[in-house]
Structure formats: C-alpha cells, structure tokens
Automatic annotation (TrEMBL):
Pfam families: MMR_HSR1, YqeH-like_C
Entries under InterPro entries matching the protein: G_CP_dom (IPR030378), GTP-bd (IPR006073), GTP-bd_ribosome_bgen_YqeH (IPR019988), Mito_lipid_metab_GTPase (IPR050896), NOA1/YqeH-like_C (IPR048422), P-loop_NTPase (IPR027417)
Domain of life: Bacteria
Name of the featured protein: Ribosome biogenesis GTPase YqeH
Molecular function as annotated in GO: GTP binding
Coiled coil (UniProt feature): none
Length: 375
C-alpha cells in the first residue's frame, strides 16, 4: 500500500485514522476481513457514512471516552449530549462540563415515546432541566425527542442552527441512547457527502472520532458511545437486553403493598417494602419484565431456589454471569413524591405522602437512587 499509515502490521483507517481490527464489530476500527484489500482502506463506520449517509454505533470503555472528551475543551464546538429518558440518571455523562470547558451544550432527551401519551411535556422538560442542573450540567436548551418516531428532530435542528455559529458539532452519549440515529439525521440535513470523508485528524485528538464534513468547512464529529458499568444494560446478554429495553409505551403497574412485602422484577432485581402504612407503588419497566409479589420473609429463599427459573429472565446461566446482588435501603420522607430509580431497569414511584422505608437488591455496581418523580 502507498499510504504510510496502512503499511506494516498495524493497519489504520484512511478516513478517521483508527487502528483497524476485524474481531469486534461494535468496537472502533472494525473492518470485515474481506474489505482489507479494498482501496481506500476504511473502517466500517467511515464506510457507512461515506457510502450510505449513515453512522453505526461503536463503543469504548469509560476511561478512553473521557480521554476523547478532554479534546473537546480545546476546540470551538457545540456539544449535543443525547440521553435516554428511560435511563436518564444512568445515561447522563458525569462531569461533562469539566471536559468540554465553556462550549455550549444542547441536551437531546431521547425515547419520549416510552412515556404515556397523557404526559405533561412541559413538566417533563422542567424536570429534565432541574435534574441536569443538580448534576452540574449547564445546558443552553433541552429538546425532547423520539428517534423511533422521528419526532422532535426539527426542533433539535432549529436549536443546532441557533447555537452552532461557525463551530464544529460534537455528538456525545452513552450506549443504547439512540446516538447513531441522531447522527444519521444530522448527516442527511447538514452534510454534503459528495465530498470525500475527511482524511486529516485534528492535532491532539485521538483516533476514535469520525469527522463528517459540513458545507461551511466545519464538521459533525461522531464520538463512540460510552459504556457505563453502572447501567444494567451493560451487563446483560443480547437476548436479555431485548427484554430490559422497552420498545413500547410503558404501562404503569400499580401495586398496593403492605409492610413486609416484596416485588421481584424477574431475576433482575427486587424491591422490599420494609416499613410504613399500606400504600401504592407504581412500577415503570419494560412490559417484558415479569413482576412477582411475595412476602419479605420468603424472598431470600425464593431467590435462592428459583432465580433463573420462576424468577426469570435472565435464565440461570446468564444470571451467574452477573455480579452478586447488594442491598440498598432508603427512607422515603413524607410528601416527597419520589421515584426509586434503577439504572437500565426502570423505577418505582412512591404514590402516597405517608413515607416509607424500602430496599432494593440488584447486582453490585448498578446505580440505584431516589429522585423527584418524573411523572
């Protein structure tokens, strides 16, 4: 080959410069083995952008992603941070502001189609703004959207036009939040793909970003999706991922519970009502996750004897691949109107104003927290 970067044992993509590999399709630099003899030699992500006007999702570990983010602070950029409304606190990029400096941020909140149609969207938007602020994220605007239904994108494009100026646009997000769909829409609306995919990398950047040229000489920069091990979706098998991730509007399941009762979310998690007056709790989770009620005093034995069978999915084999369960106890104050949130699995809304002591059991490391009620 004449291109120096593609000589020797370490082949590199002529489009983005990433080291090429043929082993893991969802990781940066993937190229099918049979494509290695083509000219130019480009990774699958660059190939799809150049030939099909679309990007495919790739992922990197958290430390590598933070190194990528560190490059944005030195650029003049508009950052589009896409998050998953179903897993808001799990998909928000912690400490984003530290890495991007004073660059403006648009917060694109995807998967609004999962909430009931009667939802008050102004209240949802206000909730997102408050939670983002409490997490230390300064945003210029919040756009609610649905990649699945292609709704909200016109407003996002209007916001992008208002805030971009002559900046590059960086799109960042965690895995499974719909980032590639957003990138594909931006490519269709903004990029002249008769130009060659950019072959020059910006000085000082790592090689895992794809630069999609814009008509004004700037670029949309497609970054890999970040993997957060605190999200349930990063731990389960592909089969179980299809169970965890809802694909239809959530149907709230209301349970009237007495003190000393337990709800199992299949074999994914467990909710204990430890202390408090009889009251209702509303479950927001994928309709494919079965709920099973039992007495708290029987819960340990039930899980030991029936996890992966009666309490499934996941099945026993996949369950054994997850970390051991840990217990998180919370005191819900009177009148707090709170959700008990489990990253990637959903949340329990505490409906009454009398307060309660509750506990959640999930694999070690999964994010669990109490937050103001979303709806």
């Amino acid at each position: 080959m004449t291109d120096k970067q593609n000589e020797g044992p370490e082949l590199r993509c002529s489009g983005c410069g990433i080291r090429l590999q043929s082993e893991e399709q969802n990781k940066p630099g993937f190229i099918p083995q049979q494509a290695l003899d083509r000219e130019p030699v480009i990774c699958q992500r660059c190939f799809r952008i150049k030939n099909y006007n679309e990007s495919s999702s790739v992922t990197v570990e958290q430390d590598e992603f933070l190194r990528l983010l560190g490059q944005i602070g030195g650029q003049e950029a508009l950052v589009i941070h896409i998050v998953d409304l179903f897993d808001f606190h799990g998909s928000v990029i912690s400490g984003l502001q530290r890495f991007i400096g004073t660059n403006p941020v648009l917060l694109a909140v995807n998967k609004i189609d999962l909430l009931p149609k009667v939802t008050n969207w102004n209240k949802v938007r206000n909730w997102v703004q408050k939670e983002a602020k409490d997490l230390g994220l300064k945003v210029e605007d919040v756009v609610l959207c649905s990649a699945k239904q292609s709704s909200g994108f016109d407003r996002l494009l209007d916001a992008l036009q208002s805030y971009r100026g002559d900046r590059d646009v960086y799109v960042v997000g965690a895995t499974n939040v719909g980032k590639s769909t957003l990138i594909n829409r931006l490519i269709r609306d903004y990029s002249d793909l008769e130009q060659e995919l950019t072959v020059s990398r910006y000085p000082g950047t790592t090689l895992d970003m794809v630069h999609i040229p814009l008509d004004d000489g700037k670029a949309i920069i497609d970054t890999p999706g970040i993997m957060y091990p605190s999200r349930y979706t990063e731990w389960v098998s592909p089969q179980d991922l299809g169970v965890l991730l809802p694909d239809k509007p959530l149907k709230p399941a209301v349970y009237q519970l007495n003190e000393g009762q337990t709800l199992f979310f299949g074999g994914f998690g467990r909710f204990d009502f430890i202390q408090g007056e009889r009251q209702s709790f509303t479950c927001f989770a994928s309709g494919r996750v079965p709920l099973h009620r039992t007495k708290l005093e029987r819960a340990d034995d039930l899980f030991r004897d029936h996890a992966g069978e009666l309490l499934s999915p996941p099945n026993r084999e996949n369950l054994e691949k997850l970390p051991e369960w840990t217990r998180h106890e919370f005191r819900i104050p009177k009148g707090s109107r709170s959700d008990l949130f489990i990253s990637g699995l959903g949340w329990m809304k505490v409906n009454n104003d009398v307060g309660a002591v509750v506990a959640v059991h999930v694999p070690k490391g999964i994010k669990v927290l109490v937050r103001p009620s979303l709806i």
